[in-house]
Amino acid sequence: MAGNMNAKPYDLAGRTFLFAKEVREFAQTYPKNNLKLSDIQQLIRSSGSVGANYIEANESLGKKDFRMRIKISRKEAKESEYWLKLLKADNPQIESMRVRLEKEARELTLIFSAILQKHQST
User: Fold this and answer.
1) Mind listing the pLDDT tens digit for each residue in 39-62?
2) Is the full-model pTM beyond 0.85?
3) Element (H or E) spanning 85, and its range?
4) Which residue, among 50, 70, 49, 48, has the nearest Cα to 60 in the 3D structure?
5) Closest CA to 31 of 94, 101, 97, 98
6) Domains of the chain as residue ranges with CATH
């Protein structure tokens, strides 16, 4: 994997972009079979949607729109974690990548939850 999740960008837009990029790299290395193809496609969609909705949140039309987009980012991060759990691999190198991405999806979920909590009272 070209990226390094241990050196996460400080800005959330960069971090979510790196997550989506590394998910795509993971998908390219994952063993190809028809059974898992749908799961991989779903993972690619949800991982990209995390950052895309975060960018939209930052361009929001108001507080309500901001919260809705952050909720979608959180939902997509949770969904990415779900697909990654389904894609456990027999290959130790691929499994290591999957575990690291699953951990990042969980961390992003927690970050978006904290943002929502902070903005619930505003």
Assistant:
1) 999 999 999 999 999 999 999 789
2) yes
3) helix 63-86
4) 70
5) 94
6) 12-26+34-120 (1.20.1440.60)
